[in-house]
Amino acid sequence: MPVSGIVIQCADGCAVQVAKALDMQVGVEVRGLVKDNRIVAVIEADTVNDEVDLVSELSGMDGVITVHLAYHNFEDLEQ
Length: 79
Known about the structure:
There is one protein chain. The chain is an alpha+beta fold. It has one domain: 2-Layer Sandwich (Alpha-Beta Plaits). 27% of the residues lie in helices and 43% in strands. It has helices at 15-23, 48-59, and strands at residues 2-10, 28-34, 38-44, 64-74.
């Protein structure tokens, strides 16, 4: 299971609105809002491809400028 920390850069004045929308997304946990319209979040998915799809979906949200990967870890749950 991939788990990643991301930083989302939002358009001016959109960070709170985007954070609320992210809270409703499965696999996304908002950890905080940072100055300069940035959101820190953790995402997880069943597979790397699912995580890539999730990041693509987040990138297309209204008010989102970019999604930056800050940390990535893959946990093998079958061990």
